[in-house]
Amino acid sequence: MGHAPWWQRGIVYQVYPRSFQDSNGDGVGDLKGILRRVDYFGWLGVDAVWLSPIYPSPMADFGYDVADYRGIEPVFGTLDDFSELVAALHGRGLKLILDLVPNHTSDRHPWFVASRSGRSDPKRDWYIWRDAAPDGGPPNNWLSTFGGSAWEWDAATGQYYYHAFAREQPDLNWRNPAVRRAVYDAMRFWLDRGVDGFRVDVMWHLLKDPAWRDNPPNPAYDGSQPEFQRLLEVNTTDQPDVHEIVAEMRALIDEYDDRVLIGEIYLPIERLVAYYGRDLAGAHLPFNFQLILTAWDAGRIAGLVERYEAALPAGAWPNWVLGNHDKPRFASRVGPAQARVAAMLLLTLRGTPTLYYGDEIGMRDVPIPPGMVHDPWEKNEPGMGFGRDPQRTPMQWDASALAGFTTGTPWLPLADDRAACNVEVLSDDAGSILALYRQLIELRRTSPALSLGTYRTVAAEGGVFAYERRYDGASMLVALNFGDQPDRRIELPPGDRPGRVLASTHGDRQGETVAGALTLRPDEGVIVSLTG
Ligand code: NOJ
């Protein structure tokens, strides 16, 4: 267990800085706030903290529109605050992962300001500029993820620029070596300041078709999906040569000790795993979002795990994500009982788990009244359910009126259930989801079978998914009832000794001896040590 790197052994916890802890009463979370909560990470038992972007930003996309790759947004604090946070985390044996947003900048970034200042500006080619089509319209049919054309007309210079997201987020031209160098310098800037790695935003978007061909229609589009899904993104994403860039980023990361490269990639498994790179010289962890995207059904999830395990290149380390700032909260999707089963799944599968802040207290999507919408996606395609504000609401720390998050007016509304659903109250309740998360994290941390062991499916029928994790003679069985059916029975693999229950999602049964078969109650997940 000693030689596995931290990003394989450990657990990543995502903080959305605007919503974690406000320290100055402006209603927006900040670095000093995170610093104040730094002991929480250790208490919970996670190993690495990933911060969504904290760089200077006009906040057209809440930090994913970066105006300076080497600074700290004043609403979040200063570089000194940042250094203090790095030191505080490292002092507790915790790692810090930054978000890197290389695909696009803010339209206020000095690079773009220069680029749009004239066709002969030296930075013109740092972004993607194209002439109008013969009819004066956009150069091709490419669509923005947030709706509408991905091309924005610039009257002053008479060309369109490309933006895969908001029009305030022009895409950089990664075919230009000067762009690569500039972003790589920014990566070094942070690595030199002790950052332990990056989560690279939209890694699969970095290059586009050099022939600028139209995207073909998506035959599965039925009008209920976001508008950009009208087309298949074959010419705007996942270009074959993107892997060269990923390999360059990895080589840079490898100049430093013990750092990690994580890629945000929404692709089917077969294409996702290509981001590990040839000879595993790509991303250490191409984020695997399949649990979020797959129906919550024992058979479907078992099939997913098997397909993913089978697709992994030899030696590649898996990972699993249950939630993030872009997707509805898991507890809202499956309900509170199954959210506990999901926690057990996430923390016992083979592969690095990533937790989204607040999931450990069972936070749910918070309805956002139309007048309080912030997310640019919701503003562009209102009322369709694509908005991401509901899953970005402030962390609920205690039962006070403002949940301990701020003394001012929170930038997004607090959840109505905050008096009951908060860290302080739930940490006093041995049966809470928070207690379960802590127990599961502790089990994973102390059990090489759960953190590093092999994976084998044991059962996937009757609404139950069961699997075994093994390491060095130790064996753990995890059995999950994905529904509210009682008395689900699983035959235990033959063993010399009876099994011993280590944890149940229902909070009891610890120490129970099981021999031959295990029976699960409704919505119950159980971890059994098969080797004493
Ligand atoms: C993915 C990020 O997670 C999302 O929040 C953002 O809007 C887009 N990339 C654009 O940066």
Written description of the protein model:
The chain is of the alpha/beta class and 532 residues long. The chain has 2 domains: 6-106 and 174-439, Glycosidases (TIM Barrel, Alpha-Beta Barrel), CATH 3.20.20; 452-529, Golgi alpha-mannosidase II (Immunoglobulin-like), CATH 2.60.40. Helix content is 25%, strand content 16%. It is built from 15 helices and 19 strands. It has helices at 6-9, 31-36, 38-44, 79-91, 110-115, 177-192, 242-254, 269-272, 290-293, 298-311, 330-348, 376-380, 423-427, 433-446, 448-452; strands at 12-15, 48-51, 95-100, 129-130, 151-154, 159-162, 197-200, 260-263, 285-286, 319-321, 352-356, 454-461, 464-471, 474-481, 488-491, 499-504, 513-514, 517-520, 525-529. The longest helix has 19 residues, at 330-348.
Characteristics of this structure?
6-stranded antiparallel beta sheet, 15 helices, 532 residues, Immunoglobulin-like, binds 1-deoxynojirimycin, TIM Barrel, single chain, alpha/beta, 8-stranded parallel beta sheet, 2 domains, globular
Task: Give me the CATH architecture of the largest domain, please.
Answer: Alpha-Beta Barrel
Poorly predicted runs of 5 or more residues: none
Bound molecules: 1-deoxynojirimycin
**Lateral arrangement of strands in the main beta sheet:** 9-8-7-3-2-1-11-10
* CATH first level of the largest domain: Alpha Beta
Helix percent reads 25-40%
Category from helices, strands and their pairing: alpha/beta
Largest sheet: 8 strands, parallel
The CATH topology of the largest domain comes to TIM Barrel
Distance between the termini: 20 Å
